[in-house]
Write a structure and sequence with these properties.
alpha+beta, Ybab, Chain: A, three-stranded antiparallel beta sheet, 3 strands, 61% helix, rod-shaped, coiled coil
Length: 106
């Protein structure tokens, strides 16, 4: 049984914090380098965004431009954008899950 009043080894704690910080930074770089694609429900619009949240392209099917008015087309674009943001959030959470889990177990 460990002594609850024992003073923790500060060097060990600092080394642990340093290691976790490096791991978080490594994961952050990985997330920022990711590229995610998402589509509207019927694939009229495809968006591409990077892990830093910046959109790199929004592609609209030419048939959608002829078929929908501006209001409906804007809703389809928003649908694809929101799907992309959701997909990015899920991918980011998956990358950080091991670090979060390890932090909870400390």
């Amino acid at each position: 049984m460990t002594d609850p009043y024992a003073v923790p080894d500060m060097d060990e704690l600092l080394a642990q914090v340093r290691k976790q910080t490096e791991e978080v930074q490594r994961i952050q770089r990985t997330v920022e380098a990711m590229e995610v694609k998402a589509h509207s429900r019927q694939n009229e619009v495809t968006v591409t965004l990077r892990g830093d949240g910046r959109f790199t392209s929004i592609d609209i099917d030419p048939r959608a431009i002829r078929e929908y008015d501006a209001r409906n087309l804007s809703e389809i674009v928003l649908e694809a954008v929101n799907a992309g943001l959701q997909k990015l959030a899920e991918a980011s959470n998956a990358k950080f899950a091991p670090v979060i889990s390890a932090a909870k177990n400390v």
